[in-house]
Amino acid sequence: MNYFKKILRFAAPYRNYGFLNIFFNILYALFSALSFVALIPMLDVLFKESDHTYEKPVYTGIGGAKDYLQNYLNYQVTKVAGDDQMIALVLVIGLVIALFLLKNFFNYAAMYFITFLRNGVLRDIRNAMYKKITELPVSFYTEKRKGDVIARITSDVLEIQHSFLSILELIVREPLTILFTIIVMFGISTKLTLFVFIFIPISGMLISRIGKSLKRKSDKVQQEQGHFLSIIEETLGGLRVIKAFNAEKRFNEKFDDSTDRFFRFSNSLLNRQNLASPTSEFLGILVIGILLWFGGKMVLVDKSLDASSFIAYMGLAYNILTPAKSISKASYGVKKGNAAAERVLEILETENKIADAPNAIVKETFDEKISLEQINFGYEDELVLKDFSLDIPKGSTVALVGQSGSGKSTIANLVTRFYDVNNGAIKIDNTDIRDLTLNSLRGLMGIVTQDSILFNDTVANNIKLGKPDATMEEVIEAAKIANAYDFIMDLPNQFDTNIGDAGGKLSGGQKQRLSIARAVLKNPPIMILDEATSALDTESEKLVQTALENMMKNRTSIVIAHRLSTIQNADKIVVMQKGEIVEQGSHEELLAAKNMYRKLVEMQSFD
After folding, report:
1. Where are the beta strands (DSSP E) in 271-421?
2. What is the pTM of this model?
3. What's the pLDDT tens digit per position in 146-182?
4. 2-348 to CATH, choices 3.40.50.720, 3.30.300.30, 1.20.1560.10, 3.10.180.10
5. Do residues 258 and 227 touch, judged by C-beta distance below 8 A?
6. Rounded CA separation 530/230 (Å)
7. Higher pLDDT pick, 376 / 152
8. Less Cβ crowding at N or C end of the chain, within 10 Å?
9. Could you tell me which of 346, 338, 341, 327 has the C-alpha nearest to residue 215?
């Protein structure tokens, strides 16, 4: 029930719809019971002697309320119809139809209003999850499969709607239907109703035993669904590699194994769930059968109950079965929904460690320098950076070079605060970046990543990502600086061309130039280039390198490079090895030192 309460908080904005649902459900439950009571006068007209007349009854207290109401209704019918039984029959049939019509109208009205609540909660949970997904740090997704996260925001949220939120329809209507029906049943025959109550707890115990393992089984199904969605996501992302290495068979087997497990878990879950309905129905009919025996004895032998009241009583008893069955199915829904809610709430309640400090500062300008002061950092247990210190003055270009795994890209991740340092501090203008708002910190920076990350949208919208209000002239200028203008003008719809999923319609060099144009348009004071020219051909690289050098004038730049030809003009080159600085200086100074930098230059064979 804990999960149910947590999910129910999303219903608060829709409480008015909930109150209207409760109001109409009360009316539905009341008229559901009354519609069967109205059968009694109709049966009296059909089966009692034609010369039977009714006098106006006298109310004698709550104990005789049932007889009073029944006789009063009969009195009114005979008063209008006189001795004509057909008129009396039409009257009571009209009464029954009117009551059933009102009952179904109230049912529709209740369902109409709960629909807004259910779908509103579904929308808000999805929105909250998506917002949380975008807020959580990059580190969260190194531990979670993307497919599993997708499964949680899609199928798990739907499961919550089908299980938890469907209970909102039943939580008032079905219990009240049972309550009003039982009150009327007590009014007709206390003895018979007490007899029924002997069997209801026995039925409940048997039904509850079936649902005990549903949450565990449902959890397995949902986990496996997340697993095969991850395989699909990996397959679509790496389809070229899979085909190039003839690995289709291996991935097919991997996917088949997952869907086989899903098949087994789903069968086990659904078979257990499907057992609920026939079990509850059989137990209900068993109770009805016993009632027929016991009630029939009261009518035929004891003469303590009249036939018309007994037939109406049986209708009322059967009227309990449907809501009782719905409640038992809803209890299974809670158990099944618990597993889905647990997975959804795990995302929603995950603590975001990369978040704004309580009194975070909004910084809009960059005035002096970036300082990395004795920072230590590791993605897991092993440190990637050890006591790393570096000053980057405003307006300077600092290049980070070194072998793969030396920690160059980690510096970019830490300065942008995708991760927080384990020890030490990174400061901008002597203010720790952890004391700045994330929005203002990243607003000071433009980044071009090693992998060209583009989105399924137009060329213009991809370039305008960091500056949505940019004019078309500014977009064109940024594209020209990034040497992207010419190829964009050759596209079918030029700047309005959709570039496909992850920019799949473009070449690697074209994608990288769009990424550079995006950073150019944002025009931040600090530029981070993580292998910005790695995907370009030689000619494009030279043109873009010239554009980047022009862009980096009077701007602070952190350049991470494997191609050492691109960073010869940097104010400072920092050579890294295993998370530590082994040497630093200008290109000429480091060549003259004849240490690691010179070896790297000679390995790349350029003067």
Report:
1. 369-377, 385-393, 397-402
2. 0.69
3. 777 777 887 788 777 777 666 766 777 778 777 887 8
4. 1.20.1560.10
5. yes
6. 28
7. 376
8. C
9. 338
